[in-house]
């Protein structure tokens, strides 16, 4: 099963990475939760999503692998179907693009779009559990997640400026 292969690859690739709060194994926990949510959303979606749940879950497990590990696209191409690799590459923000340009790319790939939406929902919800006292910066980050979600849903324009000009 492609889903199992992606999970094993993710566990080996992400290793014991922590997140910005210092939680051990945070990256693998993150992708596992995004995959769980992606599977749930896909199962309630249209026939395209329902028929591609295994690919969607595989992409969710691997959506950060090019950005947060030493894994290269060529390695993924040797192991996973092209549709999965394309979605993972789509979910990897390029250094030379703004966040708005990145989101426009993501919107063009149905699997990448669903996984990114689920990642934003997970991040939005997860902040409530791992931060004991929310500060202004936390609300700004939550607003960012919400805006990404709405933009990908198609009911908002991407107008968001922060210190990076994105």
Structure description:
This protein has 166 residues and is an all-alpha fold. Helix 1 runs antiparallel to helix 2, helix 1 runs parallel beside helix 4 and helix 9 runs antiparallel to helix 10. The longest helix is centred in the last third of the chain and has 21 residues. The C terminus is likely disordered.
How do the helices and strands line up, and which of them pair or pack?
Layout: H1 2-14, H2 26-43, H3 47-51, H4 53-62, H5 65-68, H6 73-79, H7 82-90, H8 99-107, H9 110-130, H10 136-153
Helix pairs in contact: 1-2, 1-4, 2-4, 2-9, 4-7, 4-9, 9-10
Summary?
The chain has 166 residues and is mostly helical. Helix content is 69%, strand content 0%. It contains 10 helices and no strands.
What attributes does this structure have?
166 residues, mainly alpha, 10 helices, globular, disordered C terminus
Estimate the global geometry from the Cα principal axes.
globular
Question: What is the chain-wise order of helices and strands?
Answer: HHHHHHHHHH
Q: In total, how many beta strands?
A: 0
Helix content: 55-70%
Portion in beta strands: under 5%
The value of Rg in angstroms is 16 Å
Distance between the termini: 39 Å
Structural class: mainly alpha
Mean pLDDT, nearest integer?
86
Unreliable spans are: 159-166
Number of separate helices:
10
Main β-sheet description? none
